[in-house]
Amino acid sequence: MIIDEVAFFVKNRFRPTIENNFSYHSPKEGQPEKYQSIRDMAKELAYLIEEMVPNGREKSLAMTNLEQSVFWANAGISRSE
């Protein structure tokens, strides 16, 4: 059936991405330093946000999204290199 063929195509098209995104990536040479640089810069921004932004939803979201930014930046390094 055409539906089965499409499902097979979609499943196999995304298989490499799924396998990569849900696998452990051991750090390669130079990557830990990159991770740390990103964390250090994010930490500086976190302290600035803590100091300057009044407590509230916006501050909470800023901190959460900063954490997510670090996560995704580091994931981009580990998954792509």
From TrEMBL:
Q: Which UniProt keywords apply?
A: Nucleotide-binding
- Any idea which GO molecular function terms this record carries? nucleotide binding
Per the record, the domain of life is: Bacteria
The UniProt record lists the Acb2/Tad1 hairpin domain at 17-77
> What is the originating organism of this protein?
Paenibacillus donghaensis
The protein's name in its UniProt record: Acb2/Tad1 hairpin domain-containing protein
